[in-house]
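We were asked to recover a plausible sequence for a given structure. The inputs and outputs are reproduced exactly as logged, with field labels preserved.

PROBLEM: sequence recovery
POSITIONS: 249
GIVEN STRUCTURE:
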């Protein structure tokens, strides 16, 4: 019998603890598939932060490091510089990267550190109670903004993929999502390109992924997928924002 699909070998036997409908599980599976397909397990190091994403470290049979809140890019900088031959992947959520760790990701990008950054944007603090995050949409309801986000109290949503694309050290920046089979396939292509650029010794690549958070948004898993299509993508358009390779071609 022909095998159509098999579970990625890099996965451990740990049972997922993500909420039903969470996008972290989808992205984690895509990363695992690429680790297998590209042979990254034995020479790779995954750098996790604090937040929902920190749960992922138990799912991979490979070297990993958990950084302090927001400090994953700083930790990854030390790892990559100590051994440039290593494949280093940084995986962060929006509260961790764009709030606690804004200085860390900005300075890593300014320096052009040669690792891959995977940024999960679910527009809210998912693990700590649904508070307003830097990426929360205007008028989006959160536990700390029961009447919706307002500019005079919370400021405006930050568009990290566009912000980092302005820095010369970032050679590739793309925004994708995982709310449909077609979008999941596009997400995997973006992740693969990011990994290939790093293996080629290029600068930083940044993949922003719009991810559903049914628990934080207080929506059903299906409605959360619809919300991405109807609301999140309007604020955060999908597509390649910067690709130095194409610009130089």
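RECOVERED SEQUENCE:
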């Amino acid at each position: 019998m022909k095998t159509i699909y098999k579970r990625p070998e890099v996965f451990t036997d740990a049972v997922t603890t993500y909420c039903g409908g969470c996008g972290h599980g989808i992205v984690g599976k895509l990363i695992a598939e690429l680790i297998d397909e590209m042979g990254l397990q034995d020479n790779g190091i995954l750098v996790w932060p604090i937040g929902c994403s920190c749960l992922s470290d138990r799912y991979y049979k490979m070297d990993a490091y958990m950084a302090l809140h927001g400090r994953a890019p700083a930790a990854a900088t030390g790892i990559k510089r100590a051994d440039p031959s290593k494949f280093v992947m940084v995986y962060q959520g929006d509260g961790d990267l764009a709030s606690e760790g804004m200085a860390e990701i900005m300075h890593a990008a300014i320096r052009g550190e040669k690792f891959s950054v995977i940024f999960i944007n679910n527009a809210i603090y998912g693990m700590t109670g649904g508070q307003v995050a830097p990426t929360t949409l205007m008028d989006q309801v959160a536990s700390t903004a029961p009447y919706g986000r307002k500019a005079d109290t919370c400021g405006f949503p930050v568009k990290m993929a566009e912000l980092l694309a302005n820095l010369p050290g970032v050679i590739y920046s793309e925004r994708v999502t995982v709310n449909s089979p077609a979008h999941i396939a596009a997400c995997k292509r973006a992740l693969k390109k990011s990994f290939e650029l790093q293996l080629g010794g290029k600068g930083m690549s940044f993949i922003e992924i719009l991810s559903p958070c049914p628990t934080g948004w207080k929506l059903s898993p299906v409605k959360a997928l619809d919300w991405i299509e109807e609301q999140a993508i309007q604020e955060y358009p999908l597509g390649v924002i910067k690709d130095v390779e194409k610009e130089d071609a």
